[in-house]
Amino acid sequence: MKKAIYISIKPKFTKKIETGEKDHEFRKYIPKEAIDTLFVYETVPTCQLKYIIELEKIVEYPNKINELGYGNADFNAGLKQSKYAYEIKHVDLLENPIGLKELKDVYGFAPPQSYAYDDRYVELTNDIKLAKVKRLI
Question: What are φ and ψ of residue 121, in 5° steps?
Fold first, then answer.
């Protein structure tokens, strides 16, 4: 793992990621530092850090991605506000997702509005790397 960021994703999209229907995560930004991993906090009503997503590459519009995944055709057509498509290589589900109360109380974590680098939450990042996971994709 090179570098990871923490991001927040709504449950309606994480469910599509879990099944492989959504094979890219679309964002308006690209971090300044090269990343290869997303630590995903699932937003309301779940409010848990649940997923580790390993990335293949990040594609910038107007470059094209495969048409088959959820939202991919819209990205290729320029219909999304997002300029970047993060290609999903693997998705791991934390066997013991971490709830918001524990994230705040133990790690000082605040769900990111855009993203936060992994070194902002060193203890949390280390614990996630040691956590048991189930490979979904």
Answer: -125, 70
Average pLDDT across each block of 10 residues of the chain; the chain has 137 residues. List them in order.
Answer: 91 97 97 96 98 97 97 98 97 98 98 96 97 96
Residue type, position 61, single letter? Y
Tell me if the bond preceding 62 is cis, omega within 30° of 0. yes
Asked if the bond preceding 111 is cis, omega within 30° of 0, the reply is no
- Indicate which CATH number applies to the domain containing 22: 2.30.130.30
Domain residue limits at 37: 4-135
Which pLDDT does position 2 carry in this prediction?
A: 79
pTM: 0.95
- What is the number of structural domains in the chain? 1
The helix (run of H) or strand (run of E) holding residue 135 is: strand 133-135
Q: Partners of 85 in the beta sheet?
A: 26, 59
Helix, strand or coil for residue 32?
Answer: coil
